[in-house]
Specification:
By secondary structure, the protein is mainly α. 47% of the residues lie in helices and 0% in strands. The protein has a domain at 16-89. The protein has helices at residues 16-32, 34-38, 44-60, 68-85.
Amino acid sequence: MNAAPTTSTAPRTAGPVAARARDDAIRRLSGEFSLLIMTGRLTTRDVVTAVEDSLRELTLAGAPVACLPEFVERLARVRLAEVTDEPGHTVGGGGDAHTDRPVGGRRPRETGVLATRASPR
């Protein structure tokens, strides 16, 4: 019996690496954005959605499985920063008091684990 090939938009699974990358990114980003979550500028669902969408797009694009943990977290962080910059998404207006970013200014340089390691100074 010949089975018809299925066309699925579901990403190829990266197994336990992808699951661990998802869980770790949600945990870390929920902590990182906890003040924004407490003040209502973000929800936990925003964090989960950003991470899941990032993981889905990276796996569909064929990102190396070994790089998924870092890539997922970086892409989700960028997406969450964009969401908090949307004027209609904030509860308290367009001020950036909770993100340490001056209004109209540039984002401070990353200094965490995921900061660019090869950037010359």
